[in-house]
Specification:
Blueprint (H helix, E strand, L loop, with lengths): L1 E2 L4 E5 L4 E9 L5 E13 L4 E3 L4 E3 L5 E7 L7 E13 L4 E2 L4 E7 L2
Length: about 110
């Protein structure tokens, strides 16, 4: 399974929160679930937003979503989005597909 980010992500909460989300694609036949955590958004201006939350998805899920917060306002525009993904297989083993994408932050 690969977790991707939507190309365009919305800012909310006074531009202090990114509504991070994206599709879950390429589930393998023996994939049981995927934990998406440590989501980080870094703007081209060097501002950083982090999520302390996580979400678990299964092969029946078509997408995932988490709010990613910053202590200060984020600048709309180009940014890099990262997440740590742990996929659990039916036999209990794990793998970690990369999850790093260029995104655009949109004003509310």
């Amino acid at each position: 399974m690969n977790a991707n980010f939507d190309e365009k992500l919305s800012l909310k909460n006074g531009k202090k929160t990114v509504a991070a989300r994206g599709p879950c694609v390429d589930w393998k036949p023996n994939d049981k679930s995927a934990l998406i955590e440590n989501v980080r958004i870094e703007t081209d201006a060097g501002e950083l937003a982090l999520s302390l939350q996580s979400v678990t998805v299964t092969p029946s899920d078509m997408s995932w979503a988490l709010d990613v917060s910053s202590s200060s306002q984020l600048t709309p525009g180009s940014a890099e989005a990262y997440a740590h993904v742990t996929v659990t297989r039916n036999n209990g083993s794990h793998y970690h597909p990369p999850c790093e994408h260029d995104v655009v932050l949109l004003s509310p």
